[in-house]
Amino acid sequence: MKKKRFSPLKFLVTVICLVAIASSVIINVSFAKSEVPKFYDRYVYVVGESNPLEGDITTGAALIAKDASDISIASGDIVLCYPSDNPSVISLRSINAVVEGDDGSESYYTRDNFHEDNTESIPKQSIVAVCTGYPESLELGRFIVFTRDMKGIIAEFIAPCILLVILLIAGIISSKGSDDDDENILYEYDEEEKEQSQQQARKNAHVKQSNTPLYDPASDIRPSEELNKKQMSIAENFSQKKVDHDSPYQKEKERTMQYGNLPKISQRNPKTETKSKIKRIIYSRILLLLLQIQCKTRKMLPILQVLFPNLRLRKCQGKQSQDLLQSQLNI
After folding, report:
1. Which of 313, 325, 315 is nearest to 289 (CA)?
2. Is residue 20 part of a domain?
3. Distances, alpha carbon 208 to alpha carbons 176, 217, 220, in Å
4. Is residue 138 a contact partner of residue 60, using CB atoms and an 8 Å limit?
């Protein structure tokens, strides 16, 4: 069974792909809903090329502003607001002056490099977030701009998805036929260890073969005791043995060998058995008839012995001869 090991490279590639896909989805979806998306109590505003507060704010930076609902605002603060000259779009402005009304409410005059409000002020409700005192990041701004561009979508979303699909297919193919049902693409099989073991085995076999030759002409070949015993055993088993004709085994063998020329009994055939049985019955009837006629005179006994040499007939009389003949003919 192949050994599986953890692959740091595949794990790192998988994590990078997942992070890229997640960041691309979050940024594109958030900025598609609003130009200034809100995350909890923070707003993210990317300063464009037409920076209205150039010199105070870095062009291209991402401003992470805090919600202004619970913050007091002073003159000179940079805020995100709906200005009086463009009340439908969130803009980046600086507070030029703070005016307190008769009812105690405050109103604010804003300005930027292109506009300055001297006639109309905005209430506190028109100020969305405060940027002064909160971080700005040029790298984050560039990353957001790149992610929203078509090149960023291809690099951070489409390409990682394709790479993950390739890794998934490769993992399925590599684990095909394996008994491990929990196999995933973050593991790969260790083929290097298998190859190293095979090389080591070949090396050991070569060393053993070189150290122990099959034949060394310089060596002195001497017969050992075990070799002598084997030679004697072979000579005894394959040498011609003398036959003892007086042994009981040899006598029984010679007696049974005299019937070796008899035809072998073939497989039983119903027709052949019926014919032979009929012949035996006919012969037995004839013999019985002859015995009944000539048993007393004993003249037919030599004739029967000549005709049927296999019958062991004795000189007997009457019923005894008939029983002996019937028993030998299996009637």
Report:
1. 325
2. no
3. 39, 19, 22
4. yes
| Residues facing 136 on adjacent strands | 63
- Contact status, residue 314 vs residue 324, Cβ threshold 8 Å: yes
Within-domain flag for 313 = yes
Of 79-83, 215-219, 254-258, 284-288, the range with the highest mean pLDDT is 79-83
Residues 77 and 94 sit within 8 Å (Cβ to Cβ): yes
Residue 327 — pLDDT band, cuts 50, 70, 90? low
pLDDT in tens, 103-160: 778 889 998 888 887 778 899 889 999 999 899 999 999 999 999 999 999 999 999 9
Amino acid type, 115? H
Backbone angles phi, psi at 103, to 5 degrees: -85, 5
Phi (first) and psi of residue 188, to 5 degrees: -135, 160
Beta-carbon contacts of residue 120 (< 8 Å; ≥ 6 apart): 84, 85
Final residue of a domain: which of 131, 148, 165?
Answer: 148
47 near 61, Cβ under 8 Å?
A: yes
59 within 8 A of 199, measured Cβ to Cβ:
no
What is each CA distance from 106 to 99, 111, 120, 124, in whole angstroms?
6, 17, 13, 7
- Domain tally for the chain? 2
What are the pLDDT digits (tens) for 152-190? Answer: 999 999 999 999 999 899 888 887 755 454 444 445 445
Its pTM stands at: 0.50
Its domain, for residue 51, covers 34-148
241: left (phi over 0), alpha (psi -120 to 50) or beta: beta
